[in-house]
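Message: Just now I want nothing more than another pair of eyes on a protein record. I am handing you a single protein, as its sequence and its fold in token form. As I understand it, each token names a local backbone shape. Take your time, and here it is.
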Amino acid sequence: MFVSVVVRPEAEAEAEGRRVVAALKAARIPHERFASAAEARGEVLVVVGDNAFLLATLRERAPDIPVLGVGSAGFGVLMEVTVSEFEANVKRLRSGDFWVEPVDRMRCVVGEREYAALNEAAVVSAQAGQFVRYSLWIDDELVWRDRGDGVIVATPTGSTAYALSAGGPIVLARARVFSCVPICSGDDHHPLVVTQEARVSVTDVTATSGVDMVLDGRERVRIGRNEVIRIARHDVPARFVRFGEKRYTRILGKLKREGEPSPILGEAPPSARFVLKLLEFEGPLTQQEMIRESGLSPRTIRNAVTFLLSQGFLTKEPSLRDARQDVYTLR
């Protein structure tokens, strides 16, 4: 057993990373910390940080090593254990008392280009504040033609991320389906769920400044006017180390715990829930950064932030880089 460790480059994660390395050393498990996941080797890759860092790590290399997500309490549904839980379970790594869960990814093909995503592919305007027009096809049948802020196609794992904030359903991990979720549909279309064996295509994409496909909230791919986005289940799944046996109550329990302090959030507009997830994945942002990352209009972001501030979900502080802007942080 050899364990590789990568740590999010941030003060709190660094402290947690030192605790993880100390626990591995105390358990006499051969290990090494690497600056990049591309350098990792061995039987397990421990990722210390949050959802965003884990997704970024998965984009650095093929999923040939099972990943164990370690984060602070409440740092997202993708993390398997907190640092304290890792310290309590580290001997189970040495003895092999864990199991590896394959988790479906999606393959996105645009022309000759091919991409992979664990959570979702979001088709949005390249510049905020503009309508996106597109057509959604399932098995070569036109399902709808829409105008709005875009559309999200999500895996079961991604159904609890941006897609949930945009009004999509929670899909349990073993269901081999995609969720197709319109973002602020101008034609009142509703989310739908299709089997992963279906052929999902997004065509006729237009916006004044162009259209991007955003993969897992990280990678932006420019989509030409006549290009077609084709989405299917990836042949190679991601692999995650699990200590517990429960699959369904695990994810639902995490979502419930994250949602417990927020009874008002159930009545919030979808854009406010979307912004909350964006801040959870990306960390503190200005409104301009929210607009750029989400593809939503300035008015939509402004209204969402105003609501979240009024309900006490966010704090606001002047930006150290630009005194004309404020930085918003989750409480």
Q: What stands out?
A: Residues 257-263 have pLDDT under 50 and may be disordered. Residues 11-26 form the longest helix (16 residues). The CA atoms of residues 129 and 298 lie 6 Å apart.
